[in-house]
Fold these 3 entries.
Entry 1:
Amino acid sequence: MANAMTAIAIFVKTPGLSPVKTRLAATLGKDAAESFHLQAANTVAATLSQLSPAAQGYFAVAETEALNHPHWQALPCIAQGDGGLGERLARVYQFLQQRHGAVMLIGADSPQMTLAVLSEGIAWLGGGSQPRLVYGPCTDGGFWLIGGNCAIDERIWTDVSYSRADTGSQLLKHIKHLGEIKHLPTLGDVDEAADLGDLQQALQQLPTPLPEQRQLLDFLASFSFPSPQSW
């Protein structure tokens, strides 16, 4: 019998074992990019922890040898496994969907996500007996969240071309026949240094930021990058 709690998995990579935020590192340097990834991932983990008992958060870790790494102690860890992003998304989704029934997959790069929006997704997936999906688009054409309460064939995940401006539209085209889709608000994510100003602004605009989101704002203040208003 599936666990009634919705599973939410944060996809992460471990500094020192995998290249992390390479485009960000090209501008800010490797250490700063890795620090951002860890700060952002643990901010998202703190947000997920506030959702109990409705949801169970997980770290989906890129490296099997890092499942017990000190960086990833805030949540239970599962392995992404080998292969391209589509294969890894499929593997984590299928594992958690069988365990929980409803699952959402998220990145660590949109730490401005809120309890209210995540709760909206959880309520939607648990709100009926029919197949349902939930989708959170990114400003760059990708997605910050994808989830469902039904099986999604691996081929659907692997037929998508990732890290493109049409990644999200491709995925939506592939899943639209599976069930009714709820669209969550569009969020930015951080790929390059220029995205940090947008994130800073988004965090500043949160009505009730968590302590970890305030700490991330303090961390971002240590960098010098253009504010959105000056572009």
Entry 2:
Amino acid sequence: MYYLNQPVRTQKVVFIPKGSINQIITQLYKRNYNVSKLDSILLRLIGSPQSGWIEMGSTYSVRGDFLYKLTTAKAALQNVTLIPGETTYIFLDQLAKKLKLDRDELKKEYSLATTQKEGALVPNTYKMPFGITEKELIRILLYNSKKQMKELSVKLFGTYNEKRWFHFVAIASVIQKESANIKEMPLVSSVIYNRIKKGMKLQMDGTLNYGKYSHIRITPKRIREDNSIYNTYKNRGIPKIPVCNVSFEAIKAAVFPAKTDYLYFMKSKSGGHDFSRNYSTHLRNIRHVTKRNRF
């Protein structure tokens, strides 16, 4: 009884991994929870721990309540979705609003957890509990994202090299911003590589939809005044830092561009893009769209 009334301090929500009772207690111990082998024995008498997020209610429990909650409680989960092409700046805004977290604290924890300013998160729908801390949320998102990235990298290259991987993420981020759909991603990729090969500037509006400008329409004034590394009208090549978080389809397109001689593309009336190799054809496509929009 004395042992069961000892205090246990936790987060308001605790993640319980899948596994045996001994494995669960070991994992909790590694995460600095005050548990021991005796708790494994007691849990066998109380019941089997549930896997997933557990709602503790507070950061303080007596051991008996803590063990009981491991077998009975469940946390309320909220879906948070990172859309391909979205920037981390905007995603942190969304996380703060949906999970009622401190936006500045999320930014701080993200900066502490990774050296990648952008592109470190894999677009997906994640189930997160109310009550999770900013630090734990960022840790989980980055851990799951890196795991998925490593798995794809091994499939594509046979290994994972972070510098090489994020080189392709940077290319993929431009493809993601510029493509109207997945089907034309390899074509957009080919334009990027072809223009770089010829020493041409990319001159792509999508690269200016970085950070807080993710959904801001690009104007001639913005192109003239933006002096960031993302302005491909002023700077040559791919921005060193990805523009956004990218889908795996965009990464595959960056690694395996289509074989074309296209140098230009223009949004068509169908919502996709018309691709061309000659500037004269590109101008004709522009005039066609401009003329159509007048009526």
Entry 3:
Amino acid sequence: MADDRLIVALDVPNVVQGLELARQLGDSVSFYKIGLGMLTGGGLALANELKQEQGKRIFLDMKLFDIGATIEAAVRGFSQFDIDFLTVHGDPQVVRAAAEGSAGSGLRILAVTVLTSLDRADLDANLIKSGDLAEITLERAARALEAGAHGVIASPQEAAAIRALPQSDGRLIVTPGVRPDGAARGDQKRVATPARAIADGADHIVVGRPIWQAEDPRAAALAVQAELPARG
């Protein structure tokens, strides 16, 4: 049975290629992430097909950011698609609005702390306050969880510190930026192996290119799952 701690990112251009990749992966994967890049290529239709027809779990990675009323309305709309996870930016007012929009549904709101493709130089360019990147990530995680997020998205390098927060008790930590041993980093700057991410407190890891760009995606997915430590 597929280990649902692995979430495979369907970072392909359209629903046709997404369904083909899901066909190749078959029962080796039970959880998929669909992001903004797929949205205009039939992403919601793909989510519905995978969820309703194939029984997969779905993580919709939209990273929503807007005024409260718009966030609440958008999240309420997404909740009608029987999605499992949805991302919003971790600003407390955004998280509170998303929590209102998801109320009464099974949708879990995950707050983005600091994107795993960013480093301190990027934060400086974006006029984010000075300080250690890991400390800023930790502070954003705590505030998002206090505002009602069901979990956070964070680099595996910050997973252990977030798991140690009192606010994280019973909450989810989902880590992108996960690369199996020997895989290229791509545009990710803060990475870890699957085993390290789980050992440091992540509930789920997100892996994309090392699986869907592999000559044999199914074998690549099974290899990632084989790296994961036994469930405690």
